[in-house]
Amino acid sequence: MSPVVPEPLLRELGRTEGGSEALGLLVRDQHTRRLVLLRALLDAASAAPAAVCPPGRLDRLRQDWALLEAAERADRAAARSVLLHPLAGPWAQRCLRGLTAVAAPTPELAADLAHFSALAAAAAIRAGLPFETRLTAPDGLLVLPTLGALRTGPGASTVHVAQSEGEVTLRQERTGVTIRPAESGATSGDPRWLPVLTLPAVLPGAAPVPLDDLDPYRTAGSGLQRFGLSSVAGLDGSERAAWREVWDGVAPMLRTGGAHRTAETAALLRCLVPLSPPPGSTSAGAATGPSSIREGAAQCSGTRREAFGAILSSRPATAAHFASTLVHELQHTKLAALAALTPLHHEDATPRHFAPWRPDARPFDGLLQGAYSHIALADYWQRCALGTDRPPARDVAWAEHARCQEQVGAVLPVLAASGALTPEGRVLVNEMISMYHRLADTPPPPGHLARAVAYVRTARMIWRQRNAS
């Protein structure tokens, strides 16, 4: 039997790289999982007691499913761009949990299931399918995933949605808004329509990147609130301009950091969710179960395993740090997708390990995830240092590289010594070790190295005091 992930592709991924074949394998598997999840949601609704999913709601879910099937027949790729939108993942997981919970259904379940109608309508709009339907706008906002949102006024209201000859009409009682679908969302001259801001693609021919501050499930269930973090309720004109300005320098920085960084961003990044800046946080990071959030004094970012292709982030200060955020978070995306394809270890989830980027004890899987993302950062910043002739930028890059390299060096022995690595996990860790030594062949200036060594030594001492070990 051939391995799920051929060894050459596994070695590429172990080096935090991955060509089109390796990345395509991860993407296809995640897309298949999303489609299976959506089917499981419908099956769970059909099997749920009437108290959980009343007959009327089940009938509407089946109508929405029929509309999705019709949209797929009309334009499969367009319809799936909605079904596979990263933020449809957290919504689907939340619905499935609500439908299969042993306890009584949550008050939010009805609203969550009603969102299926908006998802189906958005897919039909994307596919150019003529249709009519009625949608409910909760809390004064009707969100059509990947397209935008309609302000409907306070409270819940009903909106009649119809598409004909390339135009979509959203009508409430006697007033209506016309929107025109486009690759990057939908446009309208009516101020009640809020389009999704899209940022230019990092490669010609790649998809633009939505900066989604509208989707109601963009941070739902992420655990952000536990760490004082929050999503942005809505970006005003000046904030959108600021995001676009810093984004404009990202593609050149990714190229400086290696062609593979640009390629993985084009292949994997499907959505950015803007976060508010962390409230004065200086911790080295925080975690939210299957998600990961990292914080610094001025920025926080994270990923969610159920939202493949999405990165949550406050606005980085510079294009170089924006690119480094993408490098960091996309490694989490890659490694989580790889682990879904093939087990990498059999260690338990007990938090016991020191990680220089975190103040708390980490489980083995968290240690592996952190080492993987930080060695990619060490590579990125080293390339940036070697690729610039501007002394201030070179100095920043060497400092970042030295810190990440020393952090990884502190935990690689723990990963390598684990007897619970699977054969695939062993290949991955061995490639990380080889990459670490390759990076060490071009050391940073002595001052940066000394400060990095002192940083990790201090972090270990503080960690031991805090964790009494």
Strand content: 5-15%
In terms of per-residue confidence, which ranges show pLDDT below 50 for 5 or more consecutive residues? Answer: 281-291
Main beta-sheet strand count, sense and barrel state: 5 strands, antiparallel
Gyration radius, to the nearest Å?
Answer: 23 Å
Question: What is the strand arrangement across the widest sheet?
Answer: 1-4-5-6-7
Shape: globular
Distance between the termini: 45 Å
Helix content: 40-55%
Annotation, overall tally of beta strands: 15
Number of H- or I-type helical stretches: 14
Q: Can you write the helix and strand succession as a string?
A: HHHHHHEEEEEEEEEEHHHEEEEEHHHHH
Structural class estimated from helices and strands: alpha+beta
Q: Mean pLDDT, rounded to whole units? A: 91
Folded structure, characterized:
There is one protein chain. With 469 residues, this protein is α+β, with helices and mostly antiparallel strands. It has helices at 7-14, 20-47, 55-74, 76-83, 88-100, 108-126, 237-247, 250-256, 259-268, 319-341, 364-386, 391-417, 423-440, 446-467, and strands at residues 131-137, 141-144, 148-151, 157-164, 167-172, 175-182, 185-187, 193-195, 197-199, 209-211, 271-274, 286-288, 291-295, 300-304, 310-313. Strands 1-4-5-6-7 form a five-stranded antiparallel beta sheet, covered by helices on one side. A hairpin with a 2-residue loop joins strand 6 and strand 7 (185-187). The longest helix has 28 residues, at 20-47. Residues 281-291 have low confidence and may be disordered.
